[in-house]
Design brief:
Length: about 70
């Protein structure tokens, strides 16, 4: 499976699994961007990860962690 920026929910699930001790409420976008692009299946262009998609990933992660 390959992950793209549009795979917001799957990215959030993987982040929740890989970083169970992190509270996604307090993750800054620079760190979030680095974590997403470091996921093993991630294969999209890092430049496409703008603020809106990072907000969506963070919101989905918060929901997943809740």
């Amino acid at each position: 499976m390959t992950l793209m920026w549009a795979d917001v929910q799957e990215i959030a699930i993987q982040l929740a699994e890989q970083k169970p001790d992190i509270d996604p409420h307090y993750v800054n976008f620079v760190e979030l961007h680095r974590w997403v692009t470091s996921l093993p299946e991630f294969s999209d262009s890092p430049q496409r990860g703008g603020e809106k998609v990072l907000e969506a990933i963070q919101a989905a992660w918060i929901e997943e962690a809740g």
